[in-house]
Amino acid sequence: MISTFTAVFDSNVLFSNRLTSLLMWLAMSGLFRARWSNDIHREWMEAVSRERGIPIAKLEGRRQYMDAAVPDSCVTGYEDLIPALSLPDPDDRHVLAAAIRCGAGTIVNFNTSDFPADALLKYSLHTRTPDDFILDVDGLSQGTLLNAARDDIAHYIDPAISVDDYIEGIRNAQAQKQPTT
Q: 59: alpha, beta or left, given left = phi > 0 and alpha = psi -120 to 50?
């Protein structure tokens, strides 16, 4: 089953490797279509490089994994929409443009105030924090979150990760203020 409900993940949601990994497993459930753009990739990669000192070239593998794990995830052809859009931070317009172009229903973002409801209403869009979005997905099909978390934990083999460490990593991704990208 593949849903037509589409969610655009903003770069600050993709900053944390652990949260991104869980979101990819949830996306593979088919309950929603996960989307992002090359501009969103560029933003999270630059933020991780800046904040964690990881060279962008080393982050390319994660980017490739994301694109391969979720077919048709990368939105293109939205650039012409950017100039006509208005948001509190003009640098966020590319995210809104990508969401409009792919017919998304939601933008998943830690900073929902960056996308005011009145600016999104005419595009039938809304924002959700990652916590709320994950709970929404699990509410569509009970057990989806548990299954995604199990699959995600199992993929950490070198080194393996305990359930407690996994949960702590997800908590840290949710609780810490994500860098502005």
A: alpha
